[in-house]
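WARN no homologs supplied; continuing
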Amino acid sequence: MFGFSDLISLIISAFIILPVVTFLREAGYFVISGLFGVKNPRLTIGSGPRIYKKWMFDIRKHYHLYSWFSFDELKNKSKLAYIAIYAGPILINLSLALALNALLANGYLQDYKTFFDRFIFYAFYFVLFDIVPMFTVNGKPNNGMIIYEMIRYGKRTDYNNEPFIPSTTEVEEQYQADMEEIKELEREKRLKEQEFIDEIEELERVKDEELKK
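OK structure emitted
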């Protein structure tokens, strides 16, 4: 039976463990691409309005489940560089999951076993869907397919109509456009609210004048 303790576990999994595992996955791109050299790298955490931006990190207001890595250009265009970058998310989650699993198997972290069991589950979940070559519902290849195609045929498949990893410059331009649109909508909303208030005040003024007569 699903009880209160299960609800707490679900909340912790959804709002803490899963976002952290997602962030670590994107950090895999970030770390490996840094070794091979990229132009304008950025690790964005969350979505929506920006809270803080410093160096390569962009922190947004709505953090849940949404983190992504972007860059403008890879300096090292070798096959090894592409394979390593797309293997990064797999390696970081796999390494962490195996390390935590080994610690639990040897009697460590037992006070937090439930928490780390779920952490390991989600880490392996991402590894599974990253490492098995497939095309996703939007027609884009996953990391496993990108690596497979590069190793077997020596060709890139990390782009369709849009890049698999977005351009930081394009992401920033889109963000600024979105924020400007939101500001315009907020201005229109405030204008309509003020017009409504003015109409109410005008009706009250007319009513007061009629009562005075």
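Residues 4-166 form one domain.
OK
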